[in-house]
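$ run holo --ligand "4'-deoxy-4'-aminopyridoxal-5'-phosphate" --emit tokens
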Amino acid sequence: MSIAYYNGFTGAPEEIRVPLTDRALYFGDGVYDAAVGRRGKIYLADEHIRRFYRNMERVGLLPPCGKEELLRLLGDLAKKSGEEEGFFLYMQASRSGERAHAYETNCGTNLLITVKPWRPEGERLLSLIGYEDLRYEYCNVKTLNLLPSVLAARAAAEASADEAVFLRRGIVTECSHSNVSILKGGCLITHPSDRHILSGIARKNLIALCARLGVPVIKRAFRESDLLGADEVLVTSTGKFCMRAGSYNGLPLPCRSPELSGRICRELLSEFMKATS
Ligand code: PMP
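-- output --
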């Protein structure tokens, strides 16, 4: 079942009350992270918690508690949810204070956590659309200013697509809520980790797996035409691990390397299954 936590109170999501002094409501003035797990185990918990704290520091938020305490709290909530076969965990830290753009440096931090049922998806080809990347310039920080991503994801849904690929002056950066990489000539090509993409944990896992498999990894910007001519297009995120794309803007993608890409997708899913068994 879904459960929620806010500043010391636990209950059903609809029972939790958030005060209007939570600046996330007005500004998206906060940061978040999300992880998946099974059987009470949070997959890659340390990485998610480290990123959560790193991002709090980047926007000047004081941590609401220590990392160990947070890990204990997350574990307790995951158990309380009773979702043995898979859960999705969301944590949010936001600044407390009045609605004024400049915040007080001594204001407190709100901690919000939700746990809901989640299952790893079966294999299938995703369909994609291209979308001009018009977002603000702090894409490498998981801030709560998600409106541009929400609009892009909505545009994808309206086109009956799974994801929107952001294009920044013809360069493919990432997707509305995932990273995108390509396989070409046996190499993985992925955008450099700069301020134009969120350095995804699933993408890091993909890069590490490619290194283990002897697949060369090239971190360079690539264009929409490279995506269209790629042997395979791979979309990575915490919730979907790694999935192949089968179409872009309604047109089929070549999908020329199903063995390698299929193996990559399966191995990344099986790493999760092993880590949580
Ligand atoms: N890019 C964006 C814009 C995202 O929102 C996400 C998911 N939060 C990702 C990439 C993938 O990151 P991760 O693999 O850490 O889930």
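-- notes --
Helices lie at 24-27, 45-58, 67-81, 147-158, 201-213, 224-229, 258-275.
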